[in-house]
Structure of Probable branched-chain-amino-acid aminotransferase:
Amino acid sequence: RIAYVNGTFLPLEEASIPVMDRGFLFGDGIYEVTALIEGRLADNEAHLQRLDRSLREIGIPNPYSPAKWTAIQNELITRNGLLEGLIYIEVTRGVSERDFLSPADLKPTVVMFTQAKPVRANAALSKGADVITVPDLRWARRDIKSVSLLAQVLAKRAAAEASASEAWMIEDGVITEGASSTAFIVTQADEIVSRPLSHAVLPGVTRRAVLRLVEEKNLTFVERTFTVEEALRAREAFFTSASTIVMPVVSIDGQPIGTGKPGPLALELRELYIKTLLATR
Ligand code: PLP
């Protein structure tokens, strides 16, 4: 596998960053993940826009233009012969002596690699996802896609311990989002519900794309918070992310949602998303 580090393409095993990198020492950096399906980058412009915003919010200069980012991504995809999988970007504040403050002229560290994996044909799809709930232990600026992911790692470990694939995080009695996804329910009144964007959640790129599809289908989308109790009464539940697209949820904390089988609307939105992507270019 070929990786990209600060302007150089090299074998992943040879790719490294200095111990004094602030991403390693402080989690002082941000990341993005874009999916690749049949050689097409999914919603990549939106991912690069969010990358730019995350960097701006924490005062790291964006080292590249969108065109340059895309060119590097495409070269990495070509060098890896990747047709389907994920492309990961990380930007840290850079390398300097360990101190909370850093020199103003620090050069950001840029790392990129690919992961070949089935995105479209997800093995979890036929059965649907089991979800557990955990307290949301994260910081107050979850709209920034920070590499400081300790709370998410712990949430995913708890999920795995319970043989679940995702954890939905709870704060003030309502679901904020999944450890690595945006949470949705479909109510008995056929409203598609997801909480409004704020500092409390990451503005999901896939969330936005799915909302466009919901609008095109003239379905009702309601932006509001919801509780676990409401989710348990829902007709369907699902989550969205770049790597899972739209994933139906069949149980929460061991309690079945709807029929206990993947919901038809979630599956339809998933197929529509893929169809729309493959129809572009
Ligand atoms: N929420 C969190 C906390 C995430 O980590 C992710 C993706 O990793 C998402 C939501 C979904 O975002 P996107 O659809 O842009 O991948």
